[in-house]
Amino acid sequence: MRFDLGIFNGRVVDGAGNPWYVGDIGVTGSSIAKIGRLNKKDCRRTIDASGHYVCPGFIDIHTHSDLTAMVFPGCDSTLRQGVTTHLVGNCGSSAAPLREPNVEVAKTYWGEWAGKFDDWDWRTFGDYLEQLERRGVGHNIAALVGHGAVRTAVLGAQRRAPNAKELEQMKGLVDEAMRSGAFGMSTGLVYPPGSFAKTNEIVELCKVVARYGGMYTSHIRGERETILDAIREAILIGQKSGVRVQISHNCPKIGAWGRTKETLELVEKARKRGLQVTVDNDVHTDLAPALSGALPQYLHELKRKDMIEHLRSPANRARIRKEIIEDKLPAFGPSGLLKHGYFDRIFLMHCPKLRKLEGKTVAQVAKMRKKDVFDTYFDLIVEEEDEIIAIFDYIREEDVRKLLVHPLVMVSSDCATWSETGPLTDPPPYVPCAFGEYPGIFERYVRDEPVLTMQEAVRKMTSYPAQTMGLFERGLLRPGMKADIAVIDLARIKDRATNLWPHKYPFENYPHKYPLGVPFVIVNGKVAVDNGRQTKVLAGEVLRHRPR
To answer: Each residue of 218-242: pLDDT tens digit?
Structure first.
């Protein structure tokens, strides 16, 4: 038998959770043709993986690469980590469907990313997937349809329930997405417009998803004080609609620190009742949104200049402060730092007008100015005209570790694929997960301070997310499977994008760099990272879910 590629003498970690064994892998076309002992003379190209681990390519089940995969078609930062598949369209946000007269409203939810496209020339979900295909992608892309996108297409930014006719229109959009190859539907229930939806609205849409054998993924309605109720809602949606449920990045945020045992027990009990509920989580403990991102949801609907004017009013500030502390419509995780007064965990990262403040906390600035911390927070947004970005340190690493080792939790990144250079890199973003999530787990949690074995870490990155998505031809090293393969040099692997040990601000490893220790990545049988250098081949495919 002749092979296009032979990978020799590697420690094969098959993705199923089995310990490694030494073997050779022969690739023909886009698939694995043989595993065992090969003859180098039978291979057009060979790779010597001696001393390295050979794994299935990593499948990232929670990403936001919907648009950045078009800006950076090589998928540079994620491919270089050994990632070979991204599931996009999470947290209720997908690039399609779009529908007049609400296209401009939909684009506002994507912020500055929207401006990188002069012409959003897709409307249906099928159109969007075809656009991705025409441009080409460096690794595989699978997509969810976002509930927020569907809601916006029909209702715009209206904060109300759809009437019967509108709900049928929304169901029709979900149906088109599923027929076009969506893997399911996602919600983001702490963000507008998803936060305005009631449970029954989501159940009705998920019934459409269930007919096609798709999945429901959710950034649940509360990740802090209300986390248990929010998980119960996600499980209830699965129970009532018949859809399988994926709870996204489900580490308890500030206000729920230490409650991992309770949250996981809810999932375990649901599975004992026969409900297909699973969980993913990333390992980063911070996030870098605009300061205004932690304000109550309705303020996000205002135009920038209107929000700034709104924040100038002392009466408005007093009301907003009260709303943040009462938290009646739970906002996303970092908002908990404001609710609980942890302004010393909010580090100013990008201040276009007030550069001298970069690296300081909001608490430090308030002390410098001898002002109240809330007023200082509002002042900074106004003074910087809402262009100020901060790092919110809002998750405990102890909780991350507890989730990481649980057998029902798979790995995700919550990232968008990126690059060291090009559009969206000036100023450079703080997106360590986009550059170092997977190498960082091997470096920290497998090698240096081990809590996972190599085989269990790989299972959580490969076969587990693959089976959850329904990607049954990927995620394992077996003859006949697609040849998505990562070669890992565990001794050298290094995440060069993250400051986790411990947090250090300002940022000594910023801007981010590609990781070390991932010498080869194969996508659909083609060598996409060759001895540490990224090739120019766009070997990824736009994957489409097909009803079972």
So the answer is: 999 999 999 999 999 999 999 999 9
